[in-house]
Amino acid sequence: MGYYTAHRLSTRNSDKNISEILSQLDKSEWEELFYSVDEDGNTRDFSKWYNHEDDMKKLSLAFPDTIFHLYGEGESVEDIWHSYFLNGKAQHCPAKITFDEFDANKLSD
Predict the structure, then answer these.
(1) Is pLDDT of 69 > 90?
(2) Is the alpha carbon torsion for 75, 43, 90, 50 positive or negative?
(3) How confident is the model at residue 109 (pLDDT cuts 50, 70, 90)?
(4) Pick from 1, 64, 71, 105: CA 20 to 30 A from residue 54's CA?
């Protein structure tokens, strides 16, 4: 069965957009990436890209001056995150879901 996540990939600070970078890759070497995102970095389908962090670190080493931004939205409602990759390193940023405290002044009919 497995756990499915929708991924979206983009670049920051680069003169190349994600389409230009992805067009330079051998699809047979990056099967899971291309199964998860299309040639523009948009979500292709929910996928089981379990090795996304290792793959993205490898990709970021190939383009060491580019910041890659990978967005993920998993099957669980609270599983939303952003990850950033630069020169083989990663920063993972899970969503922080918060709720307002009760305020009687905000009650409506």
Answers:
(1) yes
(2) positive
(3) confident
(4) 1
Whether residue 13 contacts residue 60, with contact meaning beta carbons closer than 8 Å, is answered with no
Classify 16 as helix, strand or coil. coil
Which tokens go with 107? 């009650």
> What confidence score (pLDDT) does residue 15 get?
81
pLDDT for res 71:
98
Domain assignment present for residue 106? The answer is no
Instruction: Look up the domain containing 66 and give its range.
Output: 5-99
Structural contact between residues 67 and 16, judged by C-beta atoms closer than 8 angstroms: no
Structure pTM?
0.88
Q: Would residue 72 count as lying in a domain?
A: yes
Number of structural domains in the chain: 1
